[in-house]
Amino acid sequence: MLAFWIALQFLSSLPVRLPGMPTAEQMGRSLLFYPAVGFVFGVLLWGLNTALDGSPLLLHTALLLSAWVLLSGALHLDGLADSADAWLGGFGDRERTLQIMKDPRSGPIAVVTLVLVLLLKFCALLVLVERGQGLLLMVAPLLGRTAMLGLFLTTPYVRAGGLGQALAEHLPRRSGWWVLLASGVLCLGLTGPQGLYVLAAAGVVFFCLRRLMMRRLGGTTGDTAGALLELLELAVLLSLAL
Fold first, then answer.
1. 3-state secondary structure of 56
2. Do 32 and 146 touch, CB atoms closer than 8 A?
3. What is the DSSP letter of 154?
């Protein structure tokens, strides 16, 4: 269970305390529990959605989205912002792109990207809440964090040293593929036949974004992994709402 608590501490703002500094092997194994953290997020959002039943629709949706952002501490939105700035400002150059990602400042493209992504998430959530499909709130956080596991299983990590390299090097790969399969089955269980469409949309977004990373960087970074999660969550929400 330690690996789960490591994953929950890293991916969320929930008050999780670990008994000590995790080893590299424990960090790598924690990747197997990223989908479980997504499922926990989904259960919490579903519970909040139930508690807000009967409240004004727009306020209801705004509170759901705010809780979603707060649960992750905006960690992945930060990665999306850094990636957006770097992709535009890097002008196709690998080293310049990596350098811009390290800059803590956000430019106009980062702000516009965040506004558009959050706006689209809000609208998709609004549709699900209006339809009374609160159970489907579990799907996007689950698949978003499953995608991060899939990314580390299939894509080199390009920054030497640091947390991401430890995750990539010590990830139990055979177990990782089984976790991916189990997450897909769980998604189908939550969504029924619609889940095939949702999984297809998630797969298309995953492979397109991974291809962009490989062409520009030759692999992934923590920021691009966060961007993948946010954009894949958005694609899943849109596929559920349309």
1. coil
2. no
3. H
Q: Give the C-alpha separation, 206 to 88, whole Å.
A: 20
pTM higher than 0.85: yes
Q: Tell me the per-residue pLDDT of 189-231, one tens digit each, with 9 for 90 and over.
A: 999 888 899 999 999 999 999 999 999 999 999 899 999 999 9
92: pLDDT strictly greater than 90 = no
Residue type, 225: A
Q: Tell me: the pLDDT tens digits for 123-157?
A: 999 999 999 998 899 999 999 999 999 999 999 99
Main-chain dihedrals φ then ψ at residue 21, nearest 5 degrees: -70, 125
Which helix (H) or strand (E) segment holds residue 197: the answer is: helix 194-216
Neighbours of 9 (CB within 10 A): 17
* Helix, strand or coil, per DSSP, at residue 107: coil
What is the b/e burial string over 162-180, where b = at least 16 CB atoms within 10 angstroms of the residue's CB? eebbbbbebbeeeebeebb
CA angle 7, 134, 47 (to 5 degrees): 55
CB of 202 closer than 8 Å to CB of 209: no
Backbone angles phi, psi at 159, to 5 degrees: -95, 120
Dist. CA 3–CA 30, nearest whole Å: 4
